[in-house]
Amino acid sequence: MATTSGRPGIFAVRDVRSLITETAEEGHGLKKAVGATHLTAMGVGAIIGTGIFVVIGEGAGIAGPAVILSFVLAAVACVFSALSYAELASSIPVAGSAYTYTYATMGELVAWIIGWDLILEYGVSVAAIAVGWGGNLNAFLDSAFGVALPDAIAKSPEDGGVFNLPAVLVVLAITFLLIRGVTESARVNLVMVAVKLLVLLFFIIVAFANFGTGNFQPFAPEGVDGVTAAAAVIFFAYIGFDAVSTGSEEAKKPARDLPLAIIGSLVVCTIFYVLTATAAIGIASPETLEGSDAPLAAALDEGAGISWAAAILALGAVVAITSVVLVIMYGQTRIFFAMCRDGLLPQRLAKVNQRYGTPARLTLVLGVLISILAALIPLSEIVKLVNIGTLFAFVLVNVGVIVLRRTRPDMPRPYRVPWSPVLPLLGIAFAVYLMSDLPWDTWVRFVVWLAIGVLIYWLYGYKNSRLRRDPDGTPGWARSPEEGDPR
Q1: Which residue ranges run through the membrane (predicted)?
Q2: 90 neighbors 259 (Cβ within 8 angstroms)
Q3: What does the alpha-carbon distance between residue 421 and residue 403 come to, in Å, rounded to a whole number?
């Protein structure tokens, strides 16, 4: 243990051994209960949501049949960051994902900034996805039974309703499932992932049974520019694999299972996305896909004459969104838990329920807050911040791999990004490119959100940080370079 009479600065980093040691603390340690299959299902559960059921139409309208290549290009853009997540998750198997990795590489202030960013990314995502869940539930009820919930209880005030009851119910149901235990949550998610993959498989089989090549000409009407523009839109249908890393601390064999789950979930989703896009173009024109709010159902209706397919695909969308809510909310609780355990947020919320092995109090608080957000708050503008927040996290994770390779060259790395720093630099380049394409007002809101976060850090996190409050009792801390390294 390093000791000193000084206090760590705002750029003090946490030693990896110290971070790992804390996971075994009484009352602050999460239960190790999930394996590679459940972790991979978490990744697939987070990635495959409404994206493939909706975004394929928008992508086809931009790139034409070449939207197939756009799906591949978007996957390539993600894979560099996925490799970096895999290295850090296997090397630092601690809850918190990019927040924790940044704490170990770039210091407390930067870690707080990315943690604050992730709170926004995950929290707003869950609320927005829950709102979408209510809309898809209504679409399923209408397609299957010809009924729908009244707007007053099915839409938020922003959309002409009074109270979005379905959004509240799905968030609270997921909240109590997460409180009950990570094993139970992982099993439920595995079932939902199986259902939505079966729905996509149904679409692919029926479409290929009625497949034709007429819609593939011209293949790329807008050329390379169309392919890349569609890839930028489709990229966000892949976001979610990073949620796997939030389960690092609860993985039974993190060194083996986390890289497999992160990369494996991305591969599985890419295969399904490419097959689905190819099958859709094989039975419907890009114009048909672009002109429908439910492009896959429209493709089956026009290309295969299966009008009742809308009900099956609507059910698939409901199940898909439910699993996304589950995994993203799980990630939100684990990031918040890590920040609370470090003292940057109220440490009492990091108490783990001994019966369930989960941060039950924290999960309940977040569940109630997110359900209120989903029920009443306008989300149309702030949801745009999710994209920039995710890409910002990707940048820092890639930077973290490069920094740790230089500052901790002897640290055990069960999985190593090949050709580092080239691949992490490519991950940074792709993320920065996509961030640069976002509208300026999104950047303004993002900077304002981070400024609020920095203010909270100075007022609360700085003085209550576990690292700073009791540096002599916190093993492995290091001072910032300008203060000298006491080790």
Answers
A1: 36-56, 63-86, 161-179, 191-211, 223-241, 262-285, 305-331, 360-379, 385-405, 417-436, 442-460
A2: yes
A3: 10
Whether residue 367 contacts residue 106, with contact meaning beta carbons closer than 8 Å, is answered with: no
Q: Do residues 183 and 34 make contact, with C-beta atoms less than 8 angstroms apart?
A: yes
In whole angstroms, give the CA distance from residue 60 to residue 230: 8
Half-sphere exposure of 111 (CA within 13 A, CB side): 30
Cα 183 to Cα 178: distance, rounded to the nearest angstrom? 9
Cα 141 to its chain centre, rounded Å, is: 28
Distance from C-alpha of 211 to C-alpha of 277, rounded to nearest angstrom: 12
What distance in Å separates the CA atoms of residue 97 and residue 245, rounded to the nearest whole number? 5
In Å, how far are 137, 256, 342, 435 from 370, measured between CA atoms? 19, 33, 23, 26
Cβ neighbours of residue 312 closer than 8 Å, sequence gap 6 or more: 199, 202
Helices (H), 284-439: 286-290, 295-303, 309-341, 360-376, 384-407, 422-436
On whether the 13-480 domain is CATH 1.20.1740.10, my answer is: yes
Taking residues 379-395, report their average pLDDT: 79
Return the number of other C-beta atoms located less than 10 Å from residue 375's C-beta: 24
Which amino acid belongs to residue 64? G
Report the alpha-carbon distance of residue 54 to residue 133 in Å, rounded: 13
Number of helices and strands (H, E) in the chain? 21, 2
Residues 432, 37: Cα–Cα separation, whole Å: 32
Phi, then psi, of 13 in degrees rounded to 5: -105, 155
In this structure, the number of other CB atoms found within 10 A of the CB of residue 13 comes to 28
> How do residues 294-337 score in pLDDT, each as one tens digit?
788 888 887 778 878 878 888 888 999 899 999 999 999 999 99
CA-wise closest residue to 248 among 108, 98, 362: 98
28: enclosing H helix or E strand: none
How many Å apart are CA 381 and CA 401, to the nearest integer?
A: 33
Query: Which of 18-22, 71-75, 190-194, 419-423 is the least confident region?
Result: 18-22
Work out the end-to-end distance of the chain between its first and last CA atoms, rounded to an integer number of angstroms. 9
Q: What are phi and psi of 401, to 5 degrees?
A: -60, -45
Phi, psi angle pair for 251, to nearest 5°: -75, 135
The helix-helix angle for 182-209 and 309-341 (nearest 10°) equals 150
Report the distance separating Cα 313 and Cα 305, nearest Å. Answer: 15
Residue 348 tokens read as 């009492």
Per-residue pLDDT at 458:
94
C-alpha neighbours within 13 Å on the C-beta side of residue 260:
13
Token pair, residue 31, equals 């239960």
Among residues 340, 337, 339, 393, which one has the least CA distance to residue 178? Answer: 337
Task: Measure the CA–CA gap between 261 and 271, rounded to whole angstroms.
Answer: 15
397, 84 Cβ separation under 8 angstroms:
yes
